[in-house]
Design goal:
Length: about 140
């Protein structure tokens, strides 16, 4: 199965992956209308040291084969579908147990209070994840390893 991988040595820490992710999952057709003046809720986040010499890396769901988040989900909102971890937003009760158990810090709270995570942009018909297409340095790749 294809997954998102990050080459830390190429990451600039520009956060464009976050903006492209937030836009792709906004449901809007215009990026300015979707994001300008609003708090964004990307499903990927860039972490790392401040400054040009620091190491940066993007954190997103790794779609584990035996995911702790799915095991901890009390409402059954998290499930495995075709090898990827998916969330049924209507079933999420916002208990955040999945956020607490994820060893990678890949789940976060959405604007509505429910949990959100990377689902590889398969719901919004991008073809490949928006973070990959929006990375100017190709530090984020979508491939099978």
């Amino acid at each position: 199965m294809k997954r998102v991988y990050v080459n830390e040595e190429w990451c600039l820490g520009c956060h464009l992956c976050e903006y492209n992710c937030a836009f792709a999952n906004s449901g809007e057709r215009d990026m300015a209308k979707a994001l300008k003046g609003k708090k964004i809720f990307p499903r990927i986040s860039v972490d790392g040291e401040e400054g040009n010499s620091g190491i940066h890396f993007a954190v997103s769901c790794r779609h584990c084969t035996d995911p702790l988040c799915v095991k901890s989900c009390i409402s059954g909102a998290l499930h495995i579908e075709d090898g990827r971890v998916c969330i049924d937003h209507d079933r999420c009760v916002g208990c955040l147990s999945c956020v607490l158990v994820c060893p990678y810090g890949a789940l976060s709270v959405s604007g509505s209070g429910a949990v959100q995570k990377c689902e590889l942009c398969l719901e919004n018909s991008c073809g490949e994840p928006a973070c990959v297409t929006g990375c100017p340095n190709r530090a984020i790749v979508y491939e099978e390893r």
